[in-house]
Design brief:
By secondary structure, the chain is of the alpha+beta class. It contains three helices and five strands; from the N terminus they run βαβββαβα. Strand 2 and strand 3 form a beta hairpin. It is globular and about 40 Å long.
């Protein structure tokens, strides 16, 4: 059986509802029910599609000398091998974007509960820099 093709594209503001649903699926970014508005996301998100459906996203923050790729979220109902392919596609494309903007390195925070993503990253030449807490502060 052929593997479905993973298409990576820049996410559009219209993808906000899909991103919010993915965040809810993995119980991410729902701090104290803050009601984050996901409808103004351009140009900082990439979307992964399979058969026309957005199945994963990642935030790309170009900066010099260190860019960031964050908030990787992939539909947890996908088979493990498909999730791995989506993760690789999103992270590789994100790395290309920050490199294109002049970054010499890229960093990303992976929560410990996503041990499969952490293991995959470590197997692909990422290094673990530190341990800590991810903090957030509401701005609106």
């Amino acid at each position: 059986m052929p593997r479905p093709e993973v298409i990576i594209r820049m996410a559009k503001n219209d993808d906000g509802d899909v991103i919010e649903r993915l965040m809810e699926l993995v119980v991410a970014f729902q701090w104290d029910n803050w009601k984050i508005d996901w409808h103004d996301i351009e140009p900082n998100w990439l979307a992964a599609e399979i058969n026309g459906e957005v199945v994963g996203v990642i935030q790309v923050v170009p900066a010099k000398p260190i860019g960031r790729i964050e908030c990787l979220v992939i539909n947890p109902t996908l088979p493990l091998l498909t999730r791995t392919r989506v993760m690789r596609s999103l992270t590789n494309y994100g790395i290309s974007v920050v490199r294109m903007h002049g970054a010499q390195a890229v960093s990303s925070m992976i929560p410990r509960r996503y041990s499969d993503y952490l293991a995959q990253g470590l197997s692909e030449d990422w290094i673990e820099l530190d341990d800590g807490a991810m903090l957030a502060k509401r701005l609106v």
